[in-house]
Amino acid sequence: MLRPSQVKLQTHRGYRLEVKDDGGDGWMVTIYTPDSSDKSVLRTSVPDGLTGLLDEARSHIDRRVDGQPWAHERR
Question: What is the pTM of this model?
Fold first, then answer.
């Protein structure tokens, strides 16, 4: 059974989190930098995985604010 599509906005340490129902069993969280110049997308296919995904997104932001690059920026 499909859940209705949902979009929810949150902020954490100045970063915008856009939470979307993926239309199936999972969730997608897009993290936007404060100036919206960069973004990172996290996904889960676990129906009850939204809380864990948001915790992971906040951890990504905390690492970024505290000086560590996002995984896609490492070389």
Answer: 0.79
